[in-house]
Amino acid sequence: MISHRDRSAQRISALDERAEALHLKRGMGIADARAMHPSIDIVEADPEADRRLLEGLADWCDRYTPLVALDGADGLYLDVTGCTHLFGGERVMLDDILARFFQQGFDVRAGLAATPGAAWAAARFCGDRIVPSGEEEALLAPLPLAALRIEADIRASLESVGLRTAGAVMAAPRAPLARRFGSTLLLRLDQALGRLDEAVSPRLPVAPLSVERHLAEPVVLTAEIERLVEMLAVTLKVDLERRGEGARMLALLLFRVDGAVSRIAVGTSRPLREPKLIQRLFHERLTALEQDIDAGYGFDLVRLSVLAAAAFDMQQADLTGETEDDGADIALFADRIRARLGDNAVLKAVTVESHLPERAVATIPFSEAPQRTTPPKRSDRKDAPPTTIFPPERPIRLFRSPEPIEVPATEMPEGPPMNFRWRRALYRVARAEGPERIAPEWWQKGEEDAPTRDYFRIEDSDGRRYWLYRQGLYGAGQPSPRWFMHGVFA
C-alpha cells in the first residue's frame, strides 16, 4: 500500500489487489489498517516521482496519437480520432495498448467512447470497454455518481436526497438540479452525453507535419537510425514542397520497445527540406548525445516531425547548377556546430540602435540573427547619385570594457596625447586623427550626467594603431578628464 498525509493523519492513497482482498480501501487511516492487518507493507507516496512516471507513459502513448493529455495523478486522455484505422480498428488498437502496458508491468484499465466523459467512466468503472456512439446514456445510467466526475461534496448532497446513480440524476428535472446543486453537475452530465463539446488539451504542441516508420525488428545502432532519418526526410520533403515551406525546427522521436522515449531536436538557421542536409544535422546531434541515449533492446518506432516551418525561397541556379546564395554554406556549417555543441556555440554580431560603441553591437545565437535570402536590389537609374554614407572607422577589435591608460601630456588641452602608458608599457604617438565626439545617450535612465567622450585614432612609432578616448572636458571647476583604450585596429 501507499500512504499520504491528509491534514494530521496518514491515509491510504493507493493499494494493490491483495490489499483490496483484505477489505482495505482508499482513504482509510493507516492506524486502522495496521490494527486490522499488522503485517501489511506501507510505502510513503512520492508525488513527484509519480508525476514523472505518468509523463513518461504519456510520451510513450504518443506512438498512437499526438493528442495526449494528463488526467489527474493516475490517468491519461488519448484523442484517437482519425487514428484507429492505422492500427486495424478500435478493438485492435485498444488491445495493443493494454498488451504493451501489461508487458511493461502496469495494470491498466482503458475505455473508448465518443466523449471524454464517457471514456473516463468506462475505463474506471467498466474495465476495458468500447462504447458505441449514441450509447453514452446507457453506459452511465447504472454507474455511481463518481462516474460523472463531480466533486465529493456534490455527490454527498445528491445522495442525501436519494439520487445515488447517474441514471437517477438524468431522470430528475434539470431546473431544480441546477438551482440546488449548481451548474457544474449539469455541465459534466452534458459533456459525458455529448451535448456539449469537451476539449482535450494535449501536454505537448502538435507538430504540423510528421512521418514515422514502424519497424518489424528494433534498431540499436546509430548508423541505422541515421539511415532511417534520411528515408523519413525524403517523405517529409514532398509534404514541405506541397506547402511551399522549409523546416526551421525538427524533432526525432525514438520509441524504445520497453516504453522509454528519446526526443532529439535540431534547429536550422534557414528553412530546410533537403534530406541529405537534415541527415547531417541529426548525425551531429546523435554523435553529441551518443553517451546519453540508451537504446536498450532497441527502438521499434522512429518518427520525424517538423515543429516549426517557414516559407521556402527558391534560389535560381546558373548553368553549372549552383545558386547565388553565398550564405547557405555558412548557415549549414553553423547549424551543424550548433547541433553538436548547442545553440550558443555559434553567435553572430548584429547592429543595435545606439551610437555608443559598446552598445552598438550585440551577439545573438546564429539561428535568431536576420538572414538575407535574396540579393539587394540595384537601382535601375544609371545616373542616380550615390547614396552610400560611409560610417566612421571603427577598430577591428573592440574591448568588452574600456581599459584605463595614463596620459602624461598633450599638445593642447583638446588634442591627442603625445604618448601614453597602457598595460605597463609606454607608447609614443607618431600620428593622430580626431577628435570624434560621442555624447552620452541622455534619454536613457542613468545617462543624464554621463561625461562626453572624445575619440582619437592613434598610430604609435611602430605602426600599431589604437582607438582611445578622453572622458570629460577640461574646464574650471570640472574634474580632470580620464583616458581609456577602447580598441585596436590591427
TrEMBL record:
Keywords: DNA damage. Residues 366-394 are annotated as: Disordered. Residues 8-123 form the UmuC domain. CDD domains: PolY_like (cd03468). Residues 403-486 form the DUF6504 domain. It comes from the Bacteria. Pfam families: DUF6504, IMS. Coiled coil: none annotated. InterPro entries: DNA/RNA_pol_sf (IPR043502), DUF6504 (IPR045443), Rev_trsase/Diguanyl_cyclase (IPR043128), SulA_CellDiv_inhibitor (IPR050356), UmuC (IPR001126). Gene3D superfamilies: 3.30.70.270, 3.40.1170.60. SUPFAM superfamilies: DNA/RNA polymerases. Belongs to the DNA polymerase type-Y family. This is DNA polymerase Y family protein. It comes from Mesorhizobium caraganae.
